[in-house]
TrEMBL record:
Key words, A-Z: Fatty acid biosynthesis, Fatty acid metabolism, Hydrolase, Lipid biosynthesis, Lipid metabolism, Transit peptide
Residue stretches making up the Acyl-ACP thioesterase-like C-terminal domain: 157-254
Record domain Acyl-ACP thioesterase N-terminal hotdog: where: 6-133
UniProt GO MF annotations: acyl carrier activity; fatty acyl-[ACP] hydrolase activity
A Pfam family the protein falls into: Acyl-ACP_TE
Family the UniProt entry places it in: Belongs to the acyl-ACP thioesterase family.
Entries under Gene3D superfamilies matching the protein: Hotdog Thioesterase (3.10.129.10)
Protein name per UniProt: Thioesterase
Length: 260
């Protein structure tokens, strides 16, 4: 496969879907993050310029936003694809696509990664030689790309709240909570009645502080009608531990009876 665009086929299993047969967004993100690791291994892994080779550093996800034109369903064949976009001294930018069986793009995602030192748990600067042999869509930039702020909790809407506990199997190989758990904690607080009647059309999440084993999570959210489009909704989320912010999330929703 070419360095610039890495693509794999996937047939959606029943356990990857909700009871209506729609693929769960956190599950999809798990596959895409795994795809990014496979892509890195196929292009840089094991080389002299691989910053992960010594086991001291790891890639961590800082931010991503997703536009969903269609929700894939059980038994559908889809293609998961990713490409390197660009980088600067602190962040690497990667895009993901989800394509249907006819190669139409149905989901597009922009993401921001950083390198973290596993001992200090701090980000480290990116070196040019990490990327010198990669096919980047854009050249290196001296500027950090800015994304829109996550929508704040509404002061006029009901505050939805729920607590969660971090279990042993919630911890991943980076020694912190798997990033898709934040999506679960955000989505779940909206309740089954709303979720069964609405589809996701947009998601943005910004990670702020790590969550660890045996932490108690407080998930809170507000849900408002989108002032720009009748019949659609915006949910704003805060994931916290002991009053400290761990992640901010923004979801956009549309009725299952409407076209995305």
């Amino acid at each position: 496969m070419a360095d610039g665009y890495y693509k794999k086929e996937h047939v959606i299993k029943g356990y990857e879907c909700d009871f209506q047969g729609n693929m769960k967004f956190p599950t999809l993100m798990n596959y895409l993050i795994e795809l990014s690791g496979d892509h890195w291994e196929a292009t840089v892994g094991g080389t002299e310029t691989d910053p992960l080779a010594k086991g001291e550093l790891t890639w961590i996800l800082i931010y991503y936003q997703a536009e969903l034109a269609k929700i894939p369903k059980k038994d559908e064949k889809i293609y998961l694809a990713t490409e390197y976009r660009s980088y600067n001294r602190l962040f690497a930018y990667r895009n993901f696509d989800v394509l249907d069986e006819d190669n139409n793009i149905i989901i597009q995602i922009e993401s921001v990664f950083a390198l973290m030192d596993l001992d200090s748990r701090r980000m480290v600067k990116l070196k040019d030689d990490y990327f010198e042999n990669l096919q980047l869509k854009e050249p290196k930039s001296s500027r950090i790309k800015r994304y829109p702020d996550i929508a704040a909790l509404s002061e006029e809407a009901e505050l939805l709240e729920r607590d969660y506990y971090v279990r042993y199997y919630d911890i991943d190989s980076n020694q912190h909570v798997n990033n898709t758990l934040y999506l679960d904690w955000g989505i779940d607080v909206l309740g089954g009645e709303f979720l069964s009647q609405h589809h996701l059309t947009f998601a943005a999440i910004k990670f702020d502080k790590e969550v660890h084993y045996e932490d108690y999570i407080h998930s809170k959210a507000t849900l408002i009608e989108n002032p720009d489009r009748k019949g659609t909704y915006i949910s704003s989320h805060r994931i916290e531990t002991e009053g400290k912010l761990n992640a901010e999330i923004e979801f956009h929703w549309i009725s299952s009876q409407q076209e995305i």
